[in-house]
Automatic annotation (TrEMBL):
The keyword Cell cycle applies. Keywords: Cell cycle, Cell division, Septation. This is Probable septum site-determining protein MinC. Cell division inhibitor that blocks the formation of polar Z ring septums. Rapidly oscillates between the poles of the cell to destabilize FtsZ filaments that have formed before they mature into polar Z rings. Prevents FtsZ polymerization. The gene is minC. The keyword Hydrolase does not apply.
Length: 223
């Protein structure tokens, strides 16, 4: 079902009613039409609606005005107010979380490197050193220390290393420790959480795309 006025469109979906607001007209004009619409709406069982502002950025006082018009002048209740626009802070946060941070150095024993988003270390992570990232950890060198990927509970994160022989690997809340006895490392491997076993496992880097098909292409992300 679609119900259109000059500056707003109401659509019925499986998830409820979505009201699309025009993003070109004056806010006062939009507010007046929204008020007229909700007051004339006689369908009382449609209590939850989503307001979508499209490409219009609304300040807090404007959001408050919309809530006031809808919830005080009708039986409707706003479930959420959405838009296609990011605030400046939201844009900075999104950029920070989706940009690969590159470090051309060796992470030495006792050092802790913390990264928001993906971490790319071009160098070694020595025994006793720690790399913690909210996203993935890529080591173009020897991983002999501790790597913690998905530190904010992103269980689909991975740890990739040119040479894998870590003291410990953590992904989200899972931990995989090195054995007590001496073992040789292996080249070009990655660690991930197996969705079936729920445990951290290692695999050849050639299988990375097959096991994590939703992982954004490394070249496109700037590695």
């Amino acid at each position: 079902m679609t119900d259109s006025n000059l500056y707003l469109t109401m659509k019925g979906t499986n998830e409820g009613i979505i009201v699309y607001l025009d993003d070109q007209c004056a806010f006062s004009t939009l507010l007046n039409e929204l008020k007229e619409k909700v007051q004339s709406d006689t369908v009382n069982d449609r209590t939850d609606i989503t307001i979508h502002c499209q490409h219009r950025y609304l300040k807090d006082w404007q959001l408050d005005e919309i809530r006031k018009v809808v919830e005080e002048d009708s039986s409707l209740k706003i479930k959420s107010i959405e838009s296609n626009v990011l605030s400046h802070q939201e844009a900075l946060t999104w950029f920070d979380e989706t940009t690969v941070k590159t470090f051309i150095k060796t992470i030495r024993s006792g050092q802790i490197l913390r990264v928001d988003g993906d971490a790319l270390i071009i160098g070694d992570v020595n025994p006793g050193a720690t790399v913690i990232a909210t996203g993935n950890v890529f080591v173009l060198g020897q991983l002999k220390g501790i790597a913690h990927a998905g530190s904010d509970e992103q269980a689909n994160s991975v740890v990739v290393a040119s040479y894998m022989n870590p003291n410990q690997i953590r992904i989200a809340n899972k931990i995989s420790r090195a054995p007590d006895y001496e073992v040789e490392g292996s080249e070009r491997e990655f660690a991930y959480i197996n969705e079936i076993t729920g445990q951290i496992e290692l695999d050849d880097i050639h299988n990375l795309q097959k096991i994590r098909p939703n992982l954004t292409d490394i070249v496109e992300r700037g590695l």
